[in-house]
Amino acid sequence: MKKDNNYDEMKAVIADLESDDKVQEMKEYVQHGKVSTYDHCRNVAKLSYDIDRMLHLKCDLKVLLTGAMLHDFYLYDWHNDDGGTHRLHGFTHAKTAAEKAKKRFDIDKKTGDVISSHMWPLNPEKIPKSKEAWVVCIADKCASLYETVFRR
After folding, report:
1. How many CB atoms lie within 10 A of CB 14?
2. What is the pTM (predicted TM-score) of this model?
3. Contact call for residues 144 and 39 (beta carbons, < 8 A)
4. 3-state SS class at 134
5. DSSP notation for 47-109
6. How is residue 124 annotated by DSSP?
7. Which of 20, 105, 138, 149 is the most exposed place for a label (fewest CB within 10 A)?
8. CATH number of the structural domain 8-150
9. DSSP designation for 29
10. DSSP assignment, residue 138?
11. pLDDT of 50-85, one tens digit each?
12. CA-CA distance, 19 to 143, in Å (whole number)?
């Protein structure tokens, strides 16, 4: 199997997102350890792409990669208590990210579901409904673990 080390296909799908000023704003917020929310989302997109390719899942790349890049599009630093508004971040940010992504990028329902279900099983009512949602959910857990343990 030929490995695409350049991720050209992935880059082409997310190019418009990456140039958006609000997506770039994610670089200002810390996600895990020293990893920004932007870099975390990019890591999840790369890992999602790799999983799709390695397992021959034939995911809809637009849905998969858009969902991966926007799964944490909540635009705040969850480490700051901010008067208690971020206390339940783990339970609420997926919904916030999906709402902001829908408003800014007019994403479709399937992509919105990828974003809003990425925190399953922490959010047990939001079970991933598509293979794209499952891939991003799993990739997010793997990337988060790696960033938390090894990138501090």
Report:
1. 22
2. 0.91
3. no
4. helix
5. HHHHHHHHTT----HHHHHHHHHHTTTT-S-TTS-GGGTTTTHHHHHHHHHHHHHHHHH---H
6. T
7. 149
8. 1.10.3210.10
9. S
10. H
11. 999 999 999 999 999 999 999 999 987 765 666 556
12. 23
